[in-house]
Amino acid sequence: MISSSLIPCGQFKTSYAKDTTIFDTPVMRAWAVLSVLFLIAAPSFLNNYHLSILIQIGFMGIAALGLNILVGYTGQISLGHAGFFGFGAFASAWLNNSFGVPVVLAMPLAAVMTTVLGLLFGIPAGRLKGLYLAIATFASQFILEDFFARADWFSGGSSGAAAAPVNLFGYELSGDKGFFYVVLFWVVVMFLIGSNLLRTRDGRAFIAVRDHYLSAEVMGINLTKYRILSFGLSSFYAGLGGALYGHYLGFVSAEGFTILMSIEFLGMIIIGGLGSVAGTLMGTTFMVLLPEVMEGGVSIAKSLIGGDVSWLNEGLAYIKQASIGLAIILFLIFEPDGLIHRWRLGRSYWKLYPFSY
Amino acid sequence: MRNLLLASAAVTLVCTGTAQAADIAIGHLADLTGATASVSKPFAAGVADALNYINANGGVKGDKIAFETVDYSYQVPRAMAQYKKWTSESKLAAIQGWGTGDTEALVSSVAKDEIPYFSASYSGHLTDPQGKTSAKAAPYNFFYGPSYTDGCRGLVEWAAADWKKKGGKGQAKFVHMGDNHPYPNAPKDACGAYAKEKGFEILNPIQYSLKPGDFKAQCLSLKESGADYAYLANTSGSTISLLKSCETVGTKAQFMGNIWGMDEAGLKASGEAANGMTWVVAATTWADTTPGMTLVREISKLSDPSGKEERPSHYMRGICSAFYMKEAMDMATTMPGGVTGANIKAAMYKKSNWVPAGLEGVCLPSTWKADDHRGTTQVMVYQAAIKGEDVKMTKVYAAELPRRPEWLGW
Lengths: 357, 410
Description:
The complex is a heterodimer of chains A (357) and B (410). With 357 residues, chain A is mainly α. Chain A has a domain at 26-257. Chain A is built from 15 helices and four strands. In chain A, the strands form two sheets. Chain A has a two-stranded antiparallel sheet with strand order 1-4. In chain A, a hairpin with a 2-residue loop joins strand 2 and strand 3 (171-173). Chain B folds into two domains: 22-145 and 285-347, Response regulator (Rossmann fold); 147-280 and 376-405, Rossmann fold. Helix content of chain B is 40%, strand content 15%. Chain B has helices at residues 2-16, 37-56, 76-89, 100-113, 148-166, 182-185, 188-197, 216-225, 236-249, 264-270, 293-300, 313-332, 341-348; strands spanning 24-30, 65-66, 69-71, 94-96, 117-118, 141-142, 173-178, 201-202, 206-207, 229-232, 254-257, 278-281, 378-387, 390-400. In chain B, strands 7, 8, 9, 10, 11, 12, 13 and 14 form an eight-stranded mixed beta sheet that branches. In chain B, strand 1, helix 2 (37-56) and strand 2 form a beta-alpha-beta unit. In chain B, helix 2 packs across helix 12, helix 3 (76-89) packs parallel to helix 4 (100-113) and helix 9 (236-249) runs parallel beside helix 10. Chains A and B meet through helix 3, helix 6, helix 13, helix 14 and helix 15 of A and helix 1, helix 2, strand 3, helix 3 and helix 4 of B.
């Protein structure tokens, strides 16, 4: 009795629809739905700290998925992702504060504004590749950072902008519990869009541009269009992530969106797995949890050694920072294909047990 | 398999990182490894040593203060996560915070959770607890010392007196120098307005990065602009580079630094380039012999038993910040409800012109009011005299600024 929950050992697909399906088996789909249901129930038994970590993973994950579409799928590079993330945060606060647009609407609108900006800053991508493109996007990072600090009318300049909490049908979703659902909604929507994007003509064009741009052009793919489109799309994700971040904190400051944050986004997708939607989420989880886990370690070490003495604090702080770096380096040495690869290996190990190769 | 194990290890670690069972739980954020570590380390050491000293000497009317110093590397999301962790584990009575980023990000959260936040960010708008003049009220934010703007205003007063003393002719020229960044920009407009009022001609601001580098270009602009007084709004690292570059270029402007812009270590590093520079100081220096320094030296021995380390002035400000909080907690013990955040806030308003017991001459007398969180408007201006290895700093001016209502939160 062969049930449809098993994957046949070979390619027996008879239609394109089967080939591009998101979930290979109904069991996998059931698992995905179950985990979303689990998350919906999560606020009833998790405390605010755990929820705030999940919220962070949520909005960072959305932005990182945007970068993965650009870097992992289209083969471009961006060192300015934090700039777009920040623009989304400011734009949403600005729409809400200056024009009274409700926050629920301001967030996607801010993402659209960021898209326009991304399309603009993506224009050099039509002509540049590799390191040259990296430097061009690097410029966009600095232009945006400077803009945030200068544009008083838009970002509040050096004093920053206040971002109102989400208000839905007169009910304020300001605490972690309320905001968790807002983030969860957008994570599910954006990750579904992300997965489905790659099953479309445009998604396949992105991959073709990445794999061999010359062949792609010969096949009739407009390289400039798809490269710039990819920038726009990734900016939409970044803008939405940023808007969620802004309304979660309740305050947006020009200080936070530095080049380091851009590099952290790159770290997330490289650790998670380039060109993988699920991997993006894993990489983000890893990067958000790592400092927290290390901090937990430091606090255990302190309680073992006893006392809160300043030399001990400083020593442990350095060990913590160094271990974060070390963990990332070890990861890249032992798992260069990302967490998603490890996940797939683990899954096939259990699936084939005890008859793995 | 392996990642399953890793994940479960991670979860255990995250879950077990809890504070010890607390009498009075407070949080302490510091930047020990990030961008502002050079000035945060002595400040954080001052806070931690002071709290340990309080615990070793009777605590808050017998109750100990349970705290944990957490390094957040000057990253706002980490400060946020840490805040949530603390607040979901126990009811915090107060937080000793650090810089611009974490303080601004937590303004509304601490107001909602009623947790007094004692920051080392002295932005003018934090002094407006009721949102009278600034866009956002900061009802639970306190800091010890003059705001950045008041510090700059104090320097402007000193500069006006200095110009008169030197017999300068005509209008003196004043320029603001700093990165285009929330922290250096905080006093820019308000201080410029006061300099104008005092008869200075205001030149276009000159921008120099918060990251140390070669600033000869900026020094050339400064030289060409003909500025007489230059206010340096950055932290000490980049200010040292600027002073060195300007020494090479040969500028004639008088440099004036803000409270985080210069310190004892900075003077040593700059050498003669910092000769004659003035800056804001809001507590005693290590060499002072005021009565309160006896207590400070006792506190310092907790992390330096030899007593040989010469602490920078930031350390003393850290102690002041912790002791004001402690005295407010003492007062809160007699209030209904005990030592809660709301009671500590109320206690902060009880006294006026007060100095924590034992720290006379170390902390400036301060007054907080329900509608005015400008603790002190007194600004001490110190000047460096450096010749070779010999570094001296002397107090040259003390400005007593008026509490103008329109200056609240600006």
